[in-house]
């Protein structure tokens, strides 16, 4: 496994995005939509389904594809006032002064921010499945939080 150094890593204030958590859902979404369209057309041509059945399957495929595309869009964007975390369903901006700790415990699927008000915010953009890159991104996030605490 290659070692990621600070020189090879992203700039400190770059947006955090997962690697596998972005590519895999997009590929699966595309394949799923294509399969739904193909089955819908095939069943229509075979005379087994009505137009309503075909439309329902295509809509279902598009909904699942949209959900997977949303998963692929997760990210955490640093700004002067804090970190904007876009997870699967919610987007939240956390001020730098609100972050008490950055946690990436062994076995956790992604980084967690412990806030001064005892709340915990998942940062799904930094994922364990990305291996060494994920660990390097967690260290970069910690460095970023520390840098904003000093300023």
Please name the defining characteristics of this protein:
single chain; 151 residues; alpha+beta; 3-stranded antiparallel sheet
Structure report:
This protein is α+β, with helices and mostly antiparallel strands and 151 residues long. Helix content is 44%, strand content 22%. The strands form two sheets. Strands 1-2-3 form a three-stranded antiparallel β-sheet, with no helix packed on it. Strands 4-5-6 form a three-stranded antiparallel β-sheet. Strand 5 and strand 6 form a beta hairpin. The longest helix is centred in the first third of the chain and has 26 residues, at 20-45.
How is this structure best summarized?
This protein is α+β, with helices and mostly antiparallel strands. The protein is 44% helix and 22% strand.
Q: What does the oligomeric state look like here? A: single chain
Major β-sheet, in short? 3 strands, antiparallel
Helix and strand run: HHEEEEEEH
Helix content: 40-55%
Which percent band covers the strand fraction? 15-25%
Number of strands: 6
Q: Identify the strand order in the major beta sheet.
A: 1-2-3
Over the alpha carbons, how many angstroms does the gyration radius reach? Answer: 20 Å
**Termini gap:** 35 Å
Q: State the low-pLDDT regions, or none.
A: 1-7
- In DSSP terms (H or I, runs of 4 or more residues), the helix count works out at 3
| Nearest-integer average pLDDT | 91
Shape: elongated
SS content category:
alpha+beta
């Amino acid at each position: 496994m290659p070692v990621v150094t600070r020189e090879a890593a992203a700039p400190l204030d770059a947006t955090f995005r997962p690697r596998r958590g972005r590519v895999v859902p997009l590929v699966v979404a595309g394949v799923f939509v294509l399969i739904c369209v193909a089955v819908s057309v095939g069943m229509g041509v075979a005379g087994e389904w009505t137009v309503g059945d075909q439309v329902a399957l295509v809509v279902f495929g598009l909904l699942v594809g949209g959900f997977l595309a949303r998963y692929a869009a997760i990210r955490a964007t640093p700004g002067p006032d804090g970190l904007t975390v876009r997870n699967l369903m919610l987007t939240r901006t956390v001020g730098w002064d609100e972050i008490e700790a950055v946690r990436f415990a062994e076995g956790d699927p992604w980084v967690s921010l412990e806030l001064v008000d005892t709340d915990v915010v998942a940062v799904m953009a930094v994922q364990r499945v990305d291996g060494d890159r994920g660990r390097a991104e967690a260290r970069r996030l910690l460095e970023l939080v520390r840098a904003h605490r000093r300023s």
